[in-house]
Every structure is written in structure tokens, then in C-alpha cells.
Design goal:
- The chain has 436 residues and is an alpha/beta fold.
- It has 2 domains: 2-185 and 360-377, NAD(P)-binding Rossmann-like Domain (Rossmann fold); 190-351 and 384-406, 2-Layer Sandwich (Dihydrodipicolinate Reductase, domain 2).
- The protein has 14 helices and 16 strands.
- The protein has helices at 12-29, 53-65, 79-93, 115-122, 135-144, 159-174, 189-199, 231-237, 243-246, 249-252, 255-264, 356-370, 377-396, 402-406, and strands at 2-3, 44-49, 69-76, 109-111, 125-128, 148-151, 179-181, 206-215, 272-278, 293-299, 305-312, 319-326, 329-332, 337-340, 345-348, 400-401.
- Helix 3 (79-93) links the parallel strand 3 (69-76) and strand 4.
- Helix 6 runs antiparallel to helix 13 (377-396).
- The longest helix has 20 residues, at 377-396.
- The radius of gyration is 22 Å and the shape is globular.
- The two termini are 42 Å apart.
- Bound molecules: nicotinamide-adenine-dinucleotide (NAD).
- Nicotinamide-adenine-dinucleotide (NAD) binds at residues 49-55, 75-78, 81, 113, 116, 129-132, 134, 152-153, 182, 184, 236, 252.
Length: 436
């Protein structure tokens, strides 16, 4: 395995410059067109950036989606993550007597902050599944290099990141590159049928929406001395708890519910956002600087409101639900059920279930083979911004406009990507934390 060195000045800007150089070389060497694989016989080389739980899952789905795929490269900031992901995927896909599907050579299994460049260079299709903070950088480098992308959610943690992703979306569009989002519910058969019903007027005009993502939380962060040689390493190993890495949990997790609200609104953005939140249970320093509960109200120009709440409190009632209320009835999105105003069920999905994670990849690879283009960039950017806007409203305690959040200058990046100290900003205090 190759452990790539960190550049001397590994700022966001230097990485972007390096990415652009690699991109220029790569597109010049092998121009990619939408119809390149239309014959259906060529090998499609898949690369993975972020070899964690979701990344290895996405690689598995990519290899299952199309028999002509091989995993040719992988990168993670941590060498142990690359090694264990490579072992796991090799066990699954390199069976005795069969052609191996995980063919990444040692030199293409890279650890370090700039490993993504190697993956992009080697691949036709790049799976982006690192922690959310790095997504804008990885995505830009991928589309600049003319590569098709599977892009996990959320796609950014701040507004500059979202604006960068919108630009990358446009670059992908101009180059006829597929850009499939990990907002997986949009690929779920039951949800697709339910939203089709909404589009066809089953509940009349939408009046209000309510979504909840209330669970017990994620892993308990512990400092393992063998794994935490610097603050940067500690924070990356426990990325969920740092706003600059995850966006906070209403962005990392609740985005799935918020995305359904945007789906119902045909991806029209709300005009104002207000909310509250805080840390009631996860107060210890080891929980970084994120909140453990949020309550946000989004208001659209038409007056439609979405009430969105999420929390990470163990030993409390869990609730993951989405409701859409219209002039003629109500949708329970998670159970794919529509009732009239008196509560009578007027429609219920009874089609096949289907694995949405697999379907995303099936559709991505089918599109590439057919020379077609799927581009989910606009909605994945807007839904990410919706979630970030909720965080900003709760952190500041202010009512914010969509225009203001879209133009926010707040950049959560650390000064440098290096194995050193990364200061942790204080937990936000509404009324004191400014909107930037
Ligand atoms: N669509 C879904 O339902 C779903 C489910 C789970 C996770 N996710 C998303 O997938 C992403 C990864 O989540 P996960 O659960 O796999 O977390 P994870 O911690 O298991 O994996 C993330 C990996 O990314 C690596 N990484 C961090 N910075 C990197 C960088 N600069 N370059 C390369 N690798 C880097 C980490 O070391 C880690 O191995 C997150 O954005 C998460 O929101 C989506």
C-alpha cells in the first residue's frame, strides 16, 4: 500500500490546484463522452474515495450493478481503513475460479489527504464517500477530470461548499457526466410511487409538512491513544461530532427527511428559515461542538411551512417520520399511505420494495452504458443547503432568508489539512453566535 505524503502546504486551494492539473492531464489523455461505453462490452473502472462503512457498501453496489466493473483504486485518509476495506471487498468479489473484480494494485490503494487524486486518475467512475467536508473538493476534481460520479450525501457542510458543488454540477452537465446522489430515498420504489401520487394531486395543494429524525445517536467517541496522534486524527476518527467535518447531525442525518420535503416542493427553496436547538444530553467535551437537538421551521413563498425536528437522545422515544398535509388529504411518506381529510386510506403502495442503495447504482451504470446522463446535482445541493440553513438558524437564533444563507461567507475549513492541532470552535450559543 502506498501512503502518500501530505504536501507542504495542503490548504484547500493547493488541493484544488493539484486536482485541476490532474484533471487537465486526465481529460487530455482520455476524453470521456457520454457514449463511450454504449457498446456495453468495455471494462468500467471504479474508484472509491472514503473507504468507510458507506464507501465499501457503495463499492459493493457498484460491482453488483454491472458485471463489467472492477474496483481499481481506493483512497482514505487512514491506511487501516484502506486495508480493511480492501480486504473486505476482495473477500466478497475475488472468488476462486472466477475473474477477480477487486483489482486495485498496491500503488493504487492510497492513504493520505491527497489520495483522491490517484483514485480519480485511475477510474472511469468515482464513488465519493468520505466525510462530508471534503465532498466539494473531491467532486470538483472528479468532474474536472471528466469522471462519472456517485456522490454521497450531504455534499457540503457550508455555503461556499454548496456553491462549489453547484458549479461542479454545471461542469458535469456540460461534459455529459453522470452525477448520482446518495440521497437514496429518491431511488426507493415506494417513495417514488408516493411522490408520483402527490404530483398527480392525490392530496390537493400542499399546505404544511412535518418531518422528524429522532434517534439515540451514533458511536460514542473515545480517544484511543494508538489512533489519535494529533487533534486532526482524533477529529477525523470522530468526524460526526465536529461541525466542520459533518455539518452537524441535522445536516449529516436529517438531510434524508429534509430532502423529502424539497422533493414534495419540486425542489423550490423556502424563503425563510428559523429554528432552535442545543446540547442537552451530549454535553461532554468529547462530543465535539455539535448540537443534540434541532427544531426548525421552513417557510415557502406560498406560505407552505415545513416543521422539521431531529434529536440524538438515547433512551428516549425514537421517531423517523415524514408527513405531507394537503387540501384534500395527508401523506404518511414512510409507510407510503395516503388518507383523506377524514382519515380514510385512499391509496397505499403495494409494489415491490427494492434496495434503494442498489437501485442508485443500477441506474447509474445503466445510464453510463446507454450513453445517457443522470444529473442529481441541483437537488443534492439544495437539500444540503436546506439542512445547513436549519443549522445556521438554530446556531444564531435568527430568522434567515434563503438568499442570505446561499450567500453566506462562513467557511468551516481548517487552515490546513495536516496531522496537527485543529482548534475546535465553541459550541454555538443562539443570540451570541453571529450569522456570517
Ligand atoms: N445514503 C445513506 O443512507 C448513507 C448512509 C451512511 C453514510 N452516508 C454518508 O456517507 C459518508 C461516509 O459515512 P460512513 O458512515 O461511511 O462514515 P465512515 O467513518 O465509516 O467512513 C468515512 C471514511 O472517509 C474517510 N475520510 C475522511 N476524510 C477523507 C478524505 N479527505 N479523503 C479520503 N477519505 C477520507 C474516513 O477516514 C473514513 O474511513 C457520509 O457523508 C455519510 O453521511 C450515507
Amino acid at each position: 500500500m502506498n501512503s502518500s505524503s501530505t504536501p507542504n502546504d495542503p490548504t484547500r486551494r493547493t488541493f484544488l490546484a493539484a486536482a485541476t492539473t490532474a484533471a487537465a492531464l486526465s481529460t487530455a489523455a482520455r476524453p470521456v463522452s457520454a457514449g463511450l461505453w454504449a457498446g456495453g462490452s468495455d471494462l468500467l473502472k471504479v474508484g472509491l474515495v472514503g473507504v468507510g462503512g458507506r464507501g465499501t457498501g457503495a463499492a459493493e453496489q457498484a460491482l453488483n450493478a454491472d458485471p463489467g466493473t472492477e474496483l481499481v483504486a481506493m483512497a482514505d485518509v487512514f491506511e487501516d481503513a484502506v486495508a480493511s476495506g480492501r480486504r473486505r471487498l476482495s473477500r466478497m468479489f475475488n472468488k476462486e475460479g472466477q475473474m477477480p473484480r477487486v483489482t486495485a494494485k498496491d500503488e493504487d490503494c492510497v492513504a493520505g489527504f491527497d489520495g483522491y487524486l490517484r483514485v480519480i486518475e485511475k477510474s472511469d467512475v468515482v464513488l465519493l464517500a468520505s466525510t462530508p467536508h471534503f465532498r466539494p473538493l473531491h467532486l470538483r476534481a472528479s468532474v474536472d477530470a471528466g469522471k462519472h460520479v456517485f456522490c454521497e450525501k450531504p455534499v457540503a457542510v457550508d455555503a461556499p461548499g454548496v456553491r462549489s458543488v453547484l458549479e461542479s454540477t454545471e461542469i458535469a452537465r456540460q461534459k455529459n457526466l453522470n452525477l448520482v446522489s446518495g440521497l437514496c430515498w429518491r431511488y426507493h420504489p415506494g417513495k417514488r410511487a408516493t411522490f408520483e401520487q402527490i404530483r398527480n394531486g392525490a392530496v390537493g395543494d400542499i399546505v404544511t409538512m412535518q418531518c422528524s429524525y429522532m434517534t439515540g445517536g451514533v458511536w460514542d467517541p473515545r480517544r484511543r491513544p494508538d489512533q489519535c496522534k494529533s487533534q486532526m486524527e482524533y477529529q477525523l476518527r470522530n468526524w460526526y461530532y465536529y461541525t466542520w467535518l459533518s455539518g452537524d447531525f441535522n445536516v449529516e442525518q436529517h438531510i434524508h427527511s429534509l430532502d423529502k420535503m424539497m422533493w414534495a416542493m419540486n425542489d423550490e427553496a423556502p424563503v425563510t428559515i428559523s429554528g432552535s436547538g442545543g446540547r442537552q444530553v451530549r454535553t461532554d467535551e468529547r462530543y465535539g461542538n455539535i448540537y443534540d437537538h434541532f427544531d426548525v421551521v421552513y417557510t415557502w413563498a406560498s406560505g407552505v411551512k415545513a416543521f422539521a425536528r431531529c434529536r440524538h437522545w438515547p433512551n428516549c422515544e425514537n421517531e423517523v417520520e415524514d408527513y405531507i398535509f394537503g387540501t384534500k388529504g395527508r401523506v404518511d411518506v414512510m409507510s407510503h399511505t395516503i388518507t383523506d381529510l377524514k382519515g380514510n386510506v385512499i391509496w397505499k403502495y403495494d409494489g415491490p420494495d427494492g434496495d434503494m442503495y442498489q437501485i442508485e447504482h443500477n441506474e447509474l451504470f445503466a445510464a453510463i452504458r446507454a450513453g445517457k446522463v443522470i444529473n442529481n446535482g441541483d437537488y443534492m445541493s439544495k437539500s444540503t443547503m436546506l439542512a445547513i440553513a436549519g443549522r445556521m438558524a438554530a446556531y444564531t437564533g435568527q430568522r434567515l432568508t434563503w438568499d442570505a444563507v446561499m450567500n453566506s461567507k462562513e467557511d468551516l475549513s481548517p487552515k490546513q489539512y495536516e496531522w496537527a492541532d485543529v482548534p475546535v470552535p465553541p459550541v454555538a450559543i443562539p443570540g451570541k453566535t453571529p450569522f456570517v
